[in-house]
């Protein structure tokens, strides 16, 4: 009897348990369907979101209107093709008019040009605009982004003139094929990854649930290790001419194959049933699944070896998986900086980001960065599991 005999026996034993088949194969597909369908309107359908033009009201004081430099720069900015397609501009006399128009839904966003703007530029201070937010947060973000780009460009031009002097700037502008003679591109619209691609709710939850339920394979490892002790069959195995390491490795190998089978079934079934696009890098998907399997087994080993019984080990393992899935945004994306920092120490974060980068058809360098970080987490877990195994071992007590 060698490791592979133990591995095959372990795999056959697990596949006979109906609850295991239900929890590892059917339940994740059901959750992906429910979450993907219920949250499709919130997260998107996998197509680029089309934002309607923002209706912007601009309030200029008398002093700001007289400032020809600011007025000319603003008009040039607003009439550029990219900006004119995104904004519908309306001039207003007072701030009260803008607030009234925003409340009545006639405007989405309002910008105030302060009276001392020209003096600030002459004094070398940064130009800043004031804005009044509307009811739609998305359109507010668009308006703030666009006009922040305007002030950044204005400040850059003023800084160039201040450092080089107006004579040098004029001389550069007279020379053809220079940046100053070309029409500036104020706004560039892009999508993460390949142009035209974004992930849908079904894709997002397919990736997150795959990572989570592959980690749940570590619980089958825990139950398998403790069942041999509880049923006193570990003594019989140790009486055979097989080392403890071979027995332990065979049981881990059987559960690892189960986790990998689970990954294949979830990926194939979500592609066929839900139309989930997993990207164009099948070998990288296999590599990620191998790394998640390693993480699942090592976490299960660590928890099993430090726990007194199967009940406490299963509870601890489940708490770890739920916590890692939650802080990594597996249930819902979390936009808290501290939580995002903590999530970088979890398996789920790097696994989820790796899958999402492939779904967005991002450059291979971005995908590999996440895979390498996932590998680093697995290496740390392997090291910890190896140290604990050498101290505790797998034997009947």
UniProtKB/TrEMBL annotation:
For this protein, the record's Pfam families field holds: ABC2_membrane_3
The cross-references to Gene3D superfamilies, in alphabetical order and at most eight, read: abc type-2 transporter like domain
Kindly list the residue ranges recorded as spanning the membrane: 20-39, 204-226, 257-276, 282-307, 319-336, 367-389
- Which key words are in the record? Cell membrane, Membrane, Transmembrane, Transmembrane helix, Transport
Could you say which residues form the signal peptide? none
The question of whether Transmembrane helix is a record keyword is answered with yes
Fetch the InterPro entries from UniProt: ABC-2_transporter_component, ABC2_TM, ABC2_TM_bact-type, MFS_trans_sf
> Which locations, inside or outside the cell, does it occupy?
Cell membrane
> Residues in domain ABC transmembrane type-2?
157-392
How does the record classify its membrane topology? Multi-pass membrane protein
Q: Which family does it belong to?
A: Belongs to the ABC-2 integral membrane protein family.
Under what name is this protein listed? ABC-2 type transport system permease protein
| Organism annotation | Paenibacillus tundrae
Tell me the classification of the organism that encodes this protein. Bacteria, Bacillati, Bacillota, Bacilli, Bacillales
């Amino acid at each position: 009897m060698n490791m592979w005999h133990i591995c095959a026996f372990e795999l056959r034993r697990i596949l006979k348990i109906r609850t295991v088949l239900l929890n590892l194969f059917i339940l994740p597909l059901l959750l992906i369907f429910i979450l993907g369908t219920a949250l499709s309107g919130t997260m998107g359908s996998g197509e680029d979101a089309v934002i309607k033009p923002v209706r912007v009201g601009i309030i200029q004081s008398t002093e700001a209107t007289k400032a020809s430099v600011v007025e000319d720069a603003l008009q040039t900015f607003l009439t550029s093709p990219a900006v004119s397609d995104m904004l519908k501009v309306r001039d207003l006399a007072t701030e009260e008019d803008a607030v009234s128009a925003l409340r009545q839904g006639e405007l989405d966003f309002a910008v105030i040009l302060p009276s001392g703007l020209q003096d600030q530029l002459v004094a070398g201070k940064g130009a800043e605009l004031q804005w009044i937010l509307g009811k739609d947060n998305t359109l507010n973000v668009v308006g703030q982004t666009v006009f922040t780009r305007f002030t950044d460009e204005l400040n850059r031009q003023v800084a160039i003139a201040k450092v080089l002097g107006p004579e040098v700037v004029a001389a550069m502008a007279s020379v053809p094929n220079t940046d100053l003679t070309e029409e500036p591109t104020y706004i560039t619209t892009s999508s993460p990854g390949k142009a035209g691609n974004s992930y849908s709710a079904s894709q997002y939850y397919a990736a997150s649930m795959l990572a989570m339920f592959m980690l749940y394979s570590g619980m089958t490892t825990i139950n398998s290790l403790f069942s041999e002790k509880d049923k006193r069959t570990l003594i019989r195995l140790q009486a055979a001419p097989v080392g403890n390491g071979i027995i332990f490795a065979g049981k881990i190998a059987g559960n690892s194959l189960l986790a990998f089978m689970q990954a294949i079934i979830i990926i194939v079934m979500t592609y066929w049933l839900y139309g989930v696009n997993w990207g164009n890098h099948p070998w990288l998907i296999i590599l990620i699944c191998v790394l998640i399997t390693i993480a699942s087994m090592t976490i299960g080993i660590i928890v099993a070896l430090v726990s007194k019984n199967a009940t406490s080990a299963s509870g601890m393992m489940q708490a770890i998986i739920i916590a890692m899935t939650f802080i990594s945004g597996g249930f819902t994306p979390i936009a808290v900086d501290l939580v995002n920092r903590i999530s970088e120490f979890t398996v789920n974060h790097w696994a989820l980001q790796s899958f999402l980068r492939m779904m967005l058809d991002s450059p291979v360098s971005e995908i590999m960065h996440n895979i390498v970080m996932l590998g680093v987490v697995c290496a740390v877990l392997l090291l910890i599991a190896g140290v604990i195994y050498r101290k505790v071992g797998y034997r009947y007590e």
